[in-house]
## 1
Amino acid sequence: MDISDQQIRWLTGVVGLLAAVITGTGEFLLHFDPQARFTDGLAFFEGISETRSNWGHFIGVLGAPLYAVGAYHIYLMLRSANHRWAFILFIVMAYGCALGGVWMGSRASISAIVNAPQYADLGHLVALYDLRYESLLNVTRFGILAISIIYIWLTASGRSDYPKWMAFFNPIILLLFSFAVWLAVPDIGKFMMPIALNIGFAIFFALSLFHVHRLRTDTKEPTDA
């Protein structure tokens, strides 16, 4: 049985949503701090057990590559507006997610360094970690900004398979949403900050899947005999 274009959109959107849920679970285990010390250097790692870090490491790293499938879902939804730029968005997002996966794989190690005895003597290792991994995260952040701009442009054009209002629900705005909640309601925001980008993508893919479902209903594709 051939897989229709609508079914591919649905399946890739589901995988994108799973990427956000699985990666977000892993990152939450790696980063959550009841005291919300997210602006105090690496203090939020203090007290995280090795077992919790290991679970977060493997769940997060194994979930991160699924974002590439989610990137393909976005490409499918935007290509009718501009095939070339939609494909560029796919490449940039997939590449950024790959680097994000590398960064994710480093977090358990920096947590171990922070919680090691004689932490004050490990400043060089922390600096080396920042050079090797935090710089990669900056590339990922730039990629998120780039794909948000392309996404807004193509969606707002009205030629994509998304309604124009979906341009508002872009990764940058959804990321800022978690920061806004943290600033306004810290007791809730502290649960969101460790996985802010994953929450944003979870909201995005949920909305995208809702729209794919509406498209499937509107077109009323015939079933195979």
## 2
Amino acid sequence: MKVIIYNLKKDGGEDGLDGSFPTDWVEAHRFLAGLEPDVLLRQEASYSHLRDNARLKAAEKMLDMKGYLAPNNVGRNPTALFVRPHTFPVSERVEYDARFWRTPPTVVSARFADVPETELLLMSWHAAYNSGDGRRREADEVTAFVDRMARCGGGIIGGGDCNEYPVQQGEALPPVDWSRVTDTRHLHHRTTVAPDGSRVSCTYWDRTMETVGLRDAARYAAHELEQTDALGATAGFDRPDQGGEIRIDRSYLDAYLARAVLRVRTHWTPWSDHAVVEVVFSRHLFAQALRREVEPVPPPQWAVVLASCEPVALPTAPHSTHRLTR
């Protein structure tokens, strides 16, 4: 089974004057169809709501999947989510208050064909690009869904463009050197100011997900399955002015389902400034995980520290020595 994440830049572009879909959109969806995903978490479905959801319906046919589209909020780049009916025969949209999100997530309650008695919550998100405070609020909203599934004993898989960085411990890519970032707007959007005046990468999303019991699929693949390439860049390929290559497109799942991960790959594509992230699962282990017949994956040590109520020294991540000037 496969879960795919893809932020297709601006939905591949605008429709032609004759109503035809842009070439980038068509070619991208042909590529995605070839990967045969069971769940597709899409971001920047910018034009998919136009003409009575014409692109959403066309994507359903191309992918042979059932599609859902989130409200078009102030971000103006809706998220979307697709599920394969044979794998998830029962799926329905989850209603929630979208006003706390710049770009509301698409949230679907599904039932896995092999374990129909257990709910599986699926989320496609696109965190606020322009505000650390906004992303913190949005990450906290995700924890409400995590809490809901923990109480009912269900599973949860979420993913998308987090617009933040993973905690640096154990990562393959070097940290962003903020002293070399020349895009000052990006500097404001993606960093906080440390007490000593230096700029530190925002990692609230990653810290929150791991602390409340979710696991980064790529982190598990790299550290437990020795697939170091799972931690490859997903964006920033042509943006040295913003710090270069980064891993901001990530999938998080509950600690039981993490045991079912077999492989995490990234695919560079010419149609977007983001790579495709592919998470491959064992169907047998996926069923066992939903039935809680496997041991949950423990959190990374830094998350154990963050979750502790004891006064302990937090691990420090490398950060820039760039200081603010007045």
## 3
Amino acid sequence: MNTNEIILGKGIAGIKFGMNKAEVEKTLGKADEIGEYSLSPKENSITLFYTDRGLSFTFESVDQDKLSYISIYNEQYHLFNFIKVGLDKKMLLDELEHFQLGKPEFESTESEEFPTHELIFFPSENLHLWLDEYKISEIQFGPFWEDMKTIVWEE
């Protein structure tokens, strides 16, 4: 397997959904930065940032602090040897039907600070493609779901 290949529902670069923080750090080394966020009074998340690699890994308390999301900011990582950071929106949309990702949902997330920020989301694949200036700026993906409440963790 290509270590730069995004495997939907599974992971990337030897990191699999369901791992804990210690397992990720054992594989990739100490994170460059750690972010801690409160999602609600009873829920929080921790994100390990690997700036040089262009990767971050998010662990949520609601998921027993297991790896819940991977975010990619570096063009070296790819999905189907085609979808990657920097890919033009028009090229993406022209080729989407070839990848069988299901029907995409589109959401404008623009703001005064980010006037071209938008999201293309594939619910069946738990895949988020964030765009700025009409190019993919971040790929975020998570594990597959068996139903609305049950995550399919990697063994």
